[in-house]
Design brief:
2 domains, three-stranded antiparallel beta sheet, 15 helices
Length: 430
C-alpha cells in the first residue's frame, strides 16, 4: 500500500497531517456536503454537536466541530482535537479488539483458546467450548445483556453475574450481538496479560500511538471539555465524564464492552494506524498479517471484533466491500476502508437531552450520508466515478424524522432520587 510522502514524516503523537482534498484524489465541493448533512441532524434536534474527521491516503481532508457540547450558547463549541466523547461500543474495537490483536501477535491469545482454561470461573453448560474467536465474533451463545446495574450491588457481584450467565445457544452456532462477550474477553485479556484492561490499553495502545486524549475513567480536569450524555438516567443525576452504559458502570467504569472516552483526533491516529496495517509514525503496533486476519469477514457481517460495512450502522452504500467499522450507542462511529485508504469518524452525544423522539433514526441517516459523501468525494476510483452524485441525501428526504418540538419529549417533572452522592464525579455532573 502506498502512503503519502507527507504522512511518512509524521511522528508518534503527532495528529494525522491535514492536506487539501485534491492532493489525495478527492473533491472539496463534495466533501463540503458533510457540513450540510451534520448541521441538518443538529437542527433537527438529534444532538447538540458533533465532531467529524475524514482522512485518506495518510492525511486528514475534513476536520470540523459542529455545534456545542450541550444545548445552550454557554456550552463550549465542539473541537475535534479537544472535545472528549463517551465512545460507547467503539470501546469493543479500539481497545478490546486491539488488545486481543497485540496478545495474538505475541502468541499469548490464540483464537482457538478455550476461555474457561484462563477463566475457570466462567462456568455453566457449554462454556467449556467457548473460544476467543467466539467472543470476538459474537458467536459465544451469550445473550445480548443482563440488567446487572439493577441486580448487583458492587463490581465484584456484577462480574460474577456475567461469568455465570447461561448461554442461549451452542457456541459457534448463532451470531448474536452481545455486551457480555466483550466483558468476558476483557477479563480474559486481563488474566493473560497480568494487568487491568485500562492499564493494558493505555500502556500498549494509546501511549505508543500518542493518543493522549483517550482513556477509561477520564480525570475531573477534563470535565469542561467532555460532552455530557444522558440527563435523566436511572442513576438519578446527569452524566458527564461517567460511562453511559449501565453495565460498564456497574463494573466500575472499565469494561470490554464500553467505558472508553476520547477525541476524534485521537481516533484519527488509531484509524490511520489500521489503514497502515498496524503501524503509525514509525511505530509498529500490530503485525500486518494480524490486521488482515482480524478485519476479514468471518461470520454474518462480523470479523474478529469489527463489523463489515453492509449499509448498516451508518456505513452508507458506497464504501468498499472490505470496509470495517463499529458504532456506539451514544452517537459515535468509525469506518475504515482499506482498499481506498479512507476513514470516516463521527462523534456525537445524541443521547444528551435530544429535542426529538427519533434521535437514533436521525443519527443513523447522518452517519449514512456522511459515509456516502466521503466515498463519493473520491475522484480517482473508477467504480465510484460511475455513480452519479445524489441530488438528495437521507437528511433531505427525512422519511422517518419527527417535527422539531420539545413537546414530544417526556421528561420527569422532578429529578429522580437516587444515589447521586455515591458518584465520585457527582460534583462535576451538574
Amino acid at each position: 500500500m502506498l502512503l503519502s510522502a507527507l504522512f511518512s514524516l509524521a511522528l508518534v503523537g503527532d495528529p494525522v497531517p491535514v492536506r487539501a482534498p485534491r492532493t489525495v484524489g478527492m473533491a472539496a465541493d463534495r466533501l463540503a456536503e458533510v457540513d450540510r448533512i451534520v448541521t441538518a441532524g443538529q437542527r433537527a434536534g438529534a444532538y447538540p454537536g458533533a465532531a467529524v474527521i475524514i482522512g485518506r491516503r495518510g492525511a486528514v481532508v475534513h476536520q470540523k466541530g459542529y455545534g456545542r457540547l450541550a444545548w445552550g450558547t454557554d456550552a463550549p463549541p465542539v473541537d475535534p482535537a479537544r472535545s472528549v466523547y463517551d465512545l460507547a461500543s467503539l470501546t469493543k474495537a479500539v481497545c478490546l479488539t486491539t488488545a486481543a490483536m497485540i496478545l495474538y501477535d505475541e502468541g499469548k491469545l490464540p483464537l482457538d483458546l478455550k476461555v474457561q482454561t484462563v477463566l475457570p470461573e466462567f462456568t455453566g453448560r457449554w462454556k467449556e467450548r467457548v473460544t476467543v474467536a467466539h467472543l470476538l465474533t459474537h458467536r459465544s451463545g451469550l445473550p445480548p445483556g443482563r440488567r446487572i446495574a439493577e441486580t448487583a450491588t458492587n463490581p465484584a457481584q456484577a462480574r460474577e453475574q456475567v461469568l455465570t450467565t447461561r448461554l442461549n445457544s451452542m457456541p459457534g452456532g448463532v451470531t448474536d450481538y452481545t455486551d457480555l462477550g466483550p466483558m468476558v474477553l476483557g477479563w480474559t485479556i486481563e488474566r493473560v496479560s497480568g494487568m487491568p484492561l485500562d492499564r493494558f490499553c493505555k500502556t500498549r495502545i494509546f501511549e505508543p500511538l500518542g493518543m493522549t486524549q483517550t482513556t477509561y475513567l477520564p480525570p475531573t480536569a477534563w470535565r469542561d471539555r467532555i460532552a455530557p450524555t444522558e440527563m435523566y438516567p436511572p442513576r438519578g443525576y446527569p452524566l458527564r465524564g461517567e460511562v453511559h452504559d449501565a453495565s460498564a458502570w456497574a463494573l466500575g467504569g472499565v469494561s470490554g464492552n464500553a467505558g472508553l472516552f476520547g477525541t476524534a483526533s485521537d481516533l484519527a491516529i488509531f484509524a490511520q494506524m489500521m489503514v497502515n496495517r498496524g503501524t503509525y509514525g514509525g511505530t509498529r503496533l500490530l503485525a500486518d498479517s494480524t490486521v488482515r486476519r482480524f478485519t476479514s469477514l468471518q461470520a454474518g457481517n462480523r470479523t474478529f471484533g469489527w463489523m463489515i460495512a453492509s449499509g448498516e450502522q451508518g456505513s452508507g452504500e458506497f464504501l468498499s466491500e472490505r470496509t470495517y467499522g463499529h458504532a456506539g450507542y451514544t452517537g459515535t462511529s468509525i469506518w475504515i476502508d482499506p482498499d481506498r485508504e479512507l476513514f470516516v469518524i463521527i462523534l456525537s452525544n445524541r443521547v444528551h437531552d435530544p429535542r426529538t423522539v427519533r434521535a437514533g433514526v436521525i443519527m443513523a441517516d447522518v452517519r449514512h450520508d456522511v459515509a456516502d459523501a466521503a466515498a463519493l468525494a473520491i475522484t480517482d476510483d473508477r467504480t465510484l466515478a460511475q455513480v452519479g452524485w445524489p441530488r438528495d441525501f437521507r437528511v433531505d428526504q427525512r422519511p422517518d424524522w419527527n417535527p422539531r418540538t420539545r413537546a414530544l419529549i417526556r421528561r420527569p417533572t422532578t429529578m429522580p432520587r437516587a444515589a447521586a452522592a455515591s458518584s465520585p464525579n457527582n460534583s462535576a455532573q451538574q
